[in-house]
Amino acid sequence: MYNLAKYQKLKNKINRIERAELGFFPTQIYKLENLSARYGVNIYLKRDDLSGFSTFGGNKIRKLEFLFGEILEQGAQNIFTYGATQSNHALQTAIACRRYNLNPILYLVDVIGEGIKDPKANILLDKVLGAEIKIIEFKENEDEFEAMYRAKAESKNYAQEISESEDDYYLIPPGGASPLGTLGFVNAYLEMKAQEFKEDLNFKNVFHATGTGGTLGGLTAANKFINDDIQVHGINVSHKDDSYLKEVAELSTAALNLLGIDFKLSDRDIIVDNNYVGAGYEIPSTRANRAVKIFAEDEGIFLDPVYTGKAAAGMIDYLEKGKIEKGSDLLFWHTGGTNALFAEKKILGNLLDNHI
Ligand SMILES: *Cc1c(COP(=O)(O)O)cnc(C)c1O
């Protein structure tokens, strides 16, 4: 049983942090009856894909609520962020900017090498929003996250050039994964605990897709601080080594420190599974596509090939291998990203084949 006093303390501290309103919370949790019957485990879905306010929500909205709290306080006009050309985070940032009359400037790494001659899915929506888009060529020996961090360094000159003062621009890191953005998922964990209590559920495992690590870091920070026994599994969507565990632990610790809580997480606190990445970030895998099909055909739920499909592939593999206790409650955190179903064929892979 988690520590209720610590839960309350965390909640009080987080409520004191400046926050913008960018979505409809709490997001719904409900049971996936057909999948639950298939695997003999009570599988619940948390609909952060329906976070609002726009049609195209997702997990980044939670981080952006805290980041825009600071942005509005600072009074910045030019908002920079970074991602792949199909970045969900970049799109959600541009959406948030429009709500507050700010100027979105997106540095997008062309991971799949298709440019933007024929814009589809997120980059199409970025254009509809009138965001300023800079395409970053992806270097051979660089991983996509290194390229995004390089773009961040490069963008600073431009930020200074177009801004009247330091306060006039704000650089949001890839995925919004700063300590402040990570608070969005510390808060999300508390939101989930309240729903669990109200519905008389008892989650043993939570599964989600991990990329920049802000989601995993925030959820794990709250989980460890309140001494909860839920296992928070981050299924990786890009190749990373063990230094990732340390990075996420540091991000979790820094997020708690922002609240004035002196609590340290170590790499041993972070649960990551690297077995479902496939060939790499934004590269489709048969396992992920099979998971997308299972969710669609069993439940009418759309996942995506880049993030949630890979996370679901991991979860389904655990279920099929009997790694999850029968009859226990499990939560799959739908982090959004379904717009990728309308992205380039390269991202979809064999999704439309008859048998996968
Ligand atoms: C960004 C993203 C994730 C991963 O979240 P991080 O906080 O970057 O680890 C998962 N799913 C979707 C759909 C995303 O867009």
From TrEMBL:
This is Pyridoxal phosphate-dependent deaminase,putative. The active site is at residue 87. Keywords: Pyridoxal phosphate. GO terms for biological process: alpha-amino acid metabolic process. Residues 22-336 form the Tryptophan synthase beta chain-like PALP domain. Belongs to the ACC deaminase/D-cysteine desulfhydrase family. Its cofactor is pyridoxal 5'-phosphate. It comes from Halanaerobium saccharolyticum subsp. saccharolyticum DSM 6643. The modification N6-(pyridoxal phosphate)lysine is found at residue 60. InterPro entries: ACCD_DCysDesulf (IPR027278), TrpB-like_PALP (IPR001926), TrpB-like_PALP_sf (IPR036052). Pfam families: PALP (PF00291). GO terms for molecular function: D-cysteine desulfhydrase activity.
